[in-house]
């Protein structure tokens, strides 16, 4: 019984000393993290605008160009290509898998538009 109390006391003392050491090292860690953050590349909106992603929001009314951009296909794609692209894009963006319901509705709208207006 006495040995258990002594071991518990020694364990608490060890945790206390470890905590004290960690708190004393904290300023050094913070300084190191700040220096590392300075060396990271800057987030540049200009480069983001020139990336492969489309800049801007959705058009007020769906059109062939926007529908093709949403599905990632050519505006003159066949119905089969539209169907295949729809399945691929919807599999990634479906609300049941964590996607946005709004984005899913735009994907559906794009598919419907291209199927209705394709040759």
Mind explaining what this structure looks like?
- The chain has 119 residues and is mainly alpha-helical.
- It folds into two domains: 1-40; 54-117, Helix Hairpins (Orthogonal Bundle), CATH 1.10.287.
- 69% of the residues lie in helices and 0% in strands.
- It has helices at 2-38, 45-49, 64-71, 79-93, 101-117.
- The N and C termini lie far apart (88 Å).
List keywords for this structure.
2 domains, Helix Hairpins, about 0% strand, about 120 residues, mainly alpha, about 70% helix
- Named CATH architecture of the largest domain: Orthogonal Bundle
Strand percentage lies at under 5%
The number of helices is: 5
CATH class of the largest domain: Mainly Alpha
Q: What's the total number of strands?
A: 0
- Termini separation comes to 88 Å
User: Would you identify the regions where 5 or more consecutive residues have pLDDT less than 50?
Assistant: none
Largest sheet entry: none
Helix content: 55-70%
> pLDDT average, as an integer?
81
How would the global form be characterised? elongated
What is the fold-level CATH name, i.e. the topology of the largest domain?
A: Helix Hairpins
Outline the fold blueprint.
Blueprint lengths: L1 H37 L6 H5 L14 H8 L7 H15 L7 H17 L2
Helix pairs in contact: 3-5, 4-5
